[in-house]
């Protein structure tokens, strides 16, 4: 029996679906705080990519996974909290020598990606709530939908920054497409582990 078909014995619905009734407020808050910390940690794993100001990070992987695991509302809330932490000056964004720190990061060339995180988490969470997380293929499709939201936000901002759609695609999408597709698949593969964690947490 696969991890996906076994999912029903662990959690029949996502945490986002359970949150309003089955989780007390402190547990929902703890889940959001944990998601913010996980997103911030992923942002620290960054690498400079030649010919673009956009760094390679693991953050999209976490954004997609958080959306699927926490559901639309809590997933989006966690990413809004992540952005708020960055705006407040906490070192949660990807370290960079060329990108502005704090709130100014959202106005820089990579701001569109960051501001798309809550929407991406919401989309993936909503699809998960509708059953897209019940098989590997539909989970990957949900992750790709979230990734498309991140790309749309990033590309829009990069067009403003570069004043060229072609340049925006070459700098903001082309260098990352293969790796980000792999992140979407990895997020789908990691989702059953998130279910196990949540199921164990609920049993305590």
Task: Walk me through the structure.
It contains 9 helices and 2 strands, in the order ααββααααααα. The protein has a single domain (14-203), classed as Arp2/3 complex 21 kDa subunit ARPC3, CATH 1.10.1760. Helices cover 69% and strands 2% of the residues. A two-stranded antiparallel sheet has the order 1-2. Helix 2 packs antiparallel against helix 3 (59-70), helix 3 (59-70) packs across helix 7 and helix 3 crosses helix 9 (177-203). It has helices at 15-22, 25-44, 59-70, 72-87, 104-107, 111-129, 136-162, 165-172, 177-203; strands spanning 46-47, 56-57.
Write a brief caption for the model:
Helix content is 69%, strand content 2%. The protein has helices spanning 15-22, 25-44, 59-70, 72-87, 104-107, 111-129, 136-162, 165-172, 177-203, and strands at 46-47, 56-57. Helix 3 (59-70) packs across helix 7 (136-162), helix 7 (136-162) crosses helix 8 and helix 7 (136-162) packs across helix 9 (177-203).
């Amino acid at each position: 029996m696969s991890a996906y078909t076994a999912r029903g014995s662990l959690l029949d619905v996502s945490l986002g679906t359970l949150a309003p009734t089955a989780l007390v407020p402190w547990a929902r808050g703890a889940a959001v705080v944990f998601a913010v910390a996980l997103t911030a940690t992923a942002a620290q794993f960054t690498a400079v990519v030649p010919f673009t100001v956009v760094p390679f990070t693991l953050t999209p992987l976490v954004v997609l996974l958080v959306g699927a695991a926490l559901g639309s509302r809590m997933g989006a809330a966690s990413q809004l909290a992540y952005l708020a932490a960055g705006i407040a000056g906490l070192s949660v964004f990807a370290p960079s020598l060329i990108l502005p720190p704090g709130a100014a990061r959202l106005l820089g060339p990579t701001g569109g990606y960051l501001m798309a995180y809550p929407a991406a988490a919401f989309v993936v969470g909503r699809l998960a709530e509708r059953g897209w997380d019940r098989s590997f293929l539909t989970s990957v499709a949900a992750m790709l939908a979230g990734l498309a939201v991140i790309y749309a936000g990033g590309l829009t901002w990069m067009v403003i920054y570069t004043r060229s759609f072609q340049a925006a695609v070459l700098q903001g999408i082309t260098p990352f497409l293969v790796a980000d597709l792999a992140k979407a698949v990895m997020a789908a593969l990691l989702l059953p582990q998130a279910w196990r964690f949540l199921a164990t947490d609920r049993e305590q």
